[in-house]
Design a protein that fits this description.
297 residues, alpha+beta, four-stranded antiparallel β-sheet, 70% helix
């Protein structure tokens, strides 16, 4: 146990020494990690906010369920309980003939032209919002099978448009994040590789006197780990500050108040985990990638 603690102390000392010994490259590596993580984090936040807005628009994309005109209002209302039992139904709101007529007339440019229209010419209906519009057609088919339902009006084209936009955003963000992740990995790998070239002779001597690959590898892995975690921590703090600053600026602009961005506090945990994990993986695996050929002595 004592020997293991001594090794850990040695790895840490040598890792820190390597960072300062190649100060400029270490600084450059940390800056690149910060830049890449901020860009990755920004795309993630954009994706989350756009998905949030699309989900809100999805809820506004109601379907109308028209009730059989032969049913009384009480009988028509009872159909709502069956609609609500369908798994994908988020909410159903009953709209009587009179309310439907009022809504229709209020939307017209000349409402006085409809003063003589009798509400009985319309049907009782339900406004229904769905949990997942990707299975709208299946849900509509279930609603149509309910006794008392005359017809269902659903805007499939709008639903498909929302889903297509969401998929494009997710794919584009994932591709950009992956590219930036690989760039960060290569930068860390090259930084550690410079340190390895500088200590190539020392590594050879250590190998000849019987040092294990793990013992030789340890300080460089620690160096990469420290660079990765340092960059991730700084990037996370900058991302949080920039996001809050942008939200405050947007809230002060009247035309932007219609937007409803997600507070950073709502995504702080997944963002912190993502930044920390990326910094760890980039640092550790970047070091492991660069050190392999130097161990073949």
């Amino acid at each position: 146990m004592k020997h293991r603690r001594n090794n850990l102390g040695y790895y840490l000392r040598e890792g820190v020494r390597g960072m300062f010994q190649h100060g400029f490259m270490s600084f450059a590596a940390v800056c690149v990690i910060i830049a890449c993580l901020i860009i990755m984090g920004s795309f993630f936040l954009i994706m989350v906010n756009l998905n949030h807005m699309i989900n809100e628009l999805e809820q506004d994309n109601e379907i109308l369920v028209y009730i059989d005109e032969d049913l009384s209002e009480a009988e028509a209302k009872s159909v709502g309980s069956q609609i609500n039992m369908i798994t994908n139904v988020l909410e159903s709101t009953f709209v009587s003939r009179e309310e439907a007529l009022e809504d229709y007339v209020s939307e017209q440019a000349n409402p006085e032209l409809f003063s003589g229209v009798d509400a009985s010419t319309l049907r009782n209906r339900f406004r229904v919002t769905l949990v997942d519009i990707s299975i709208m057609e299946t849900t509509v088919a279930e609603i149509e099978r309910i006794d008392g339902v005359a017809s269902v009006s659903a805007h499939y084209e709008i639903a498909r448009g929302f889903l297509t936009l969401q998929n494009i955003l997710n794919l584009a963000s994932a591709a950009i994040i992956l590219v930036l992740f690989v760039v960060s990995l290569l930068i860390i790998s090259n930084t550690v590789k410079l340190a390895l070239y500088d200590r190539q002779e020392e590594i050879g001597i250590m190998k000849m006197v019987g040092a294990t690959n793990g013992f030789v590898r340890g300080p460089f892995v620690v160096e990469g780990f420290l660079l990765g975690v340092l960059g991730a921590g700084i990037a996370f703090a900058i991302e949080w500050g920039l996001y809050d600053l942008l939200m405050n600026r947007l809230s002060s602009v009247d035309t932007m108040r219609l937007l409803d961005p997600i507070p950073f506090a709502d995504v702080v945990t997944p963002m912190a985990i993502a930044f920390g994990a990326t910094g760890f993986v980039v640092g550790v695996f970047g070091s492991l990638l660069s050190i392999r050929k130097f161990l073949k002595v």
